[in-house]
Task: inverse folding
């Protein structure tokens, strides 16, 4: 157990809908990163939040957005869902944004878009 | 642009064998390298973290090495067990503090 929890664990949505995924970071961790993992591939970086500010973004369109709250928990929002958004979404928390920070992952949210 | 490659993509060995998984990266400007394990349909479990200034890390039957200049890391698993069956992923933290991932090696240990 890493102390990072994600909800929900599974989700089915229809194309065009919007979805919100949630992540509760490990106690004391101030940095949260989100990743998308398609079947059979490695995770792809979506964005990172450090102390409630976005701190880096991968190659994802603006319909992927996020928030980090004062307690360092985080949300990932995806608008106008597409079939290709079906994937495992992983959240990782770490103590600091910088070098050496070990990332601890939640169990992921499996999103299926139909 | 940093790219991470893992070879082989899949590996099947009998129980008890020692084995090596490989990870290579194209840009040596990394802060650290981390090895993870992923069971089917599950999240990621961190196995070992090697800082850029370190050469290796050990945990139990696992040993990971890092050669930053050649852009290579290996994960050595001693005396493999069926419970080691999983997908093993390596990731490097790049100069923007982002984790860049390989596609993983799917390992099957046959009893």
Result:
């Amino acid at each position: 157990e890493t102390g990072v929890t994600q909800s929900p664990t599974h989700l089915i949505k229809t194309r065009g809908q919007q979805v919100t995924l949630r992540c509760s970071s490990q106690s004391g961790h101030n940095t949260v990163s989100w990743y998308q993992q398609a079947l059979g591939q490695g995770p792809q970086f979506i964005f990172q939040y450090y102390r409630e500010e976005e701190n880096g973004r991968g190659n994802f369109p603006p319909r992927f957005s996020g928030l980090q709250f004062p307690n360092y928990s985080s949300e990932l929002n995806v608008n106008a869902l597409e079939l290709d958004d079906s994937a495992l979404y992983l959240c990782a928390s770490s103590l600091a944004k910088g070098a050496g920070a070990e990332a601890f992952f939640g169990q992921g949210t499996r999103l299926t878009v139909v | 642009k940093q790219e991470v490659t893992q070879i082989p993509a899949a590996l099947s060995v009998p129980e008890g064998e020692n084995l090596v998984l490989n990870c290579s990266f194209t840009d040596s400007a990394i802060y650290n390298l981390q090895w993870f394990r992923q069971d089917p349909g599950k999240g990621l479990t961190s196995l070992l973290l090697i800082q850029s200034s370190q050469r290796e890390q050990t945990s139990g039957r696992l040993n990971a090495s890092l050669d930053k200049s050649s852009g290579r890391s290996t994960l050595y698993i001693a005396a493999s067990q069926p419970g080691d069956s999983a997908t093993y992923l390596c990731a490097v933290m790049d100069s923007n503090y982002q984790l860049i991932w390989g596609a993983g090696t799917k390992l099957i240990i046959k009893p």
User: Anything to note?
Assistant: The longest strand of chain A covers residues 87-94. DSSP finds no helices and eleven strands in chain A.
